Amino acid sequence: MIDSMKEARFPAMTVTDPARFGRVAVLLGGTSSEREVSLDSGAAVLAALQSRGVDAHAVDGIPALVDEIRAGKVDRVFNILHGSHGGGEDGVLQGVLDQLGVPYTGSGVLGSALSMDKIRTKQVWIAEGLPTPRFIRIPAGGDVRAAAFALGFPVFLKPSSEGSSVGVARILDESALDAAEKIAGEYGGEMLMEQMVRGDEFSVPVIGDRALPSIRIVPKGEWYDYHAKYIADDTQYITPGLEGDDEAEIRRLAHAGFVSAGCSGWGRVDVMRDVERGFQLIEVNTAPGMTSHSLVPKSARVLGIEFDELCWRILEQTMGEGDLA
């Protein structure tokens, strides 16, 4: 069954000789708040590519990458930087590489910049008629209390442009507002407050024009926070997360959310199923984690695609028609 699913959803690989990729920089680390996760992801990707004979080497951060490109040491980039402000998901890196004429994995400038901004992504989804929880934008120094009372408890407060559950506060009632205000003050930037979805949590990877099997996330604690994502060993991941029409619908919705946000290449869309409102798009990650706890490899494995092949297939998408001729 898995073999037939793999054949139906994934064509034969377009590159069979690793030398065709040339010199590949696995871009990791950087200076964002997600540096440590990126280092772990990058180490795993680097080992996988090298195991298949790819001439790959690690490069830590964007300035070092630019130096290597100028020195003629890079033909293409596997971007596994996470986050913004020195991470590689906010469009800055993509603009640099476009100008330098170096192909790279993942979304381009528009998709990267837009999806890093949770508020603007949700505005696009609403304009496209796609479901997402109600929210309020809170500017730097804005009134967290007023936003919470306007939406009604419970709500989530999160930075508009961070990932990996960095700076997220769960506000169940008025007693949690003091702590939430402190988090917002420490972050100092624009915040998103959105209605809490009561229901199951899912994530749907996307590679090229295909949505992979969904993953239902069942943390042992009350919610899927940083600890549950990267540290705990008791979080359950059920793949595929749904069956039949429900599974088809969540994949369709995730792919629509991915494309409408201007994304391409590969990524992951987080979705929740509210007990009353059904599926709700939460956010897009354009350079998902690739660690032992990461979701994209778990989903790909259901289709018979192991980690090294997954990295190869992601890298393949950097090859233009001229490269494949």
From TrEMBL:
Biological process per Gene Ontology, one example term: cell wall organization
Catalysis performed (reactions): 2 D-alanine + ATP = D-alanyl-D-alanine + ADP + phosphate + H(+)
**Protein residues bound to Mg(2+) 1:** D270, E283
Where in this chain does the record put each ATP-grasp domain?
122-316
Sequence similarity: Belongs to the D-alanine--D-alanine ligase family.
Which NCBIfam families does the protein's record reference?
D_ala_D_alaTIGR (TIGR01205), PRK01372.1 (NF002378)
Specify the protein name. D-alanine--D-alanine ligase
Identify the species of origin: Solilutibacter tolerans
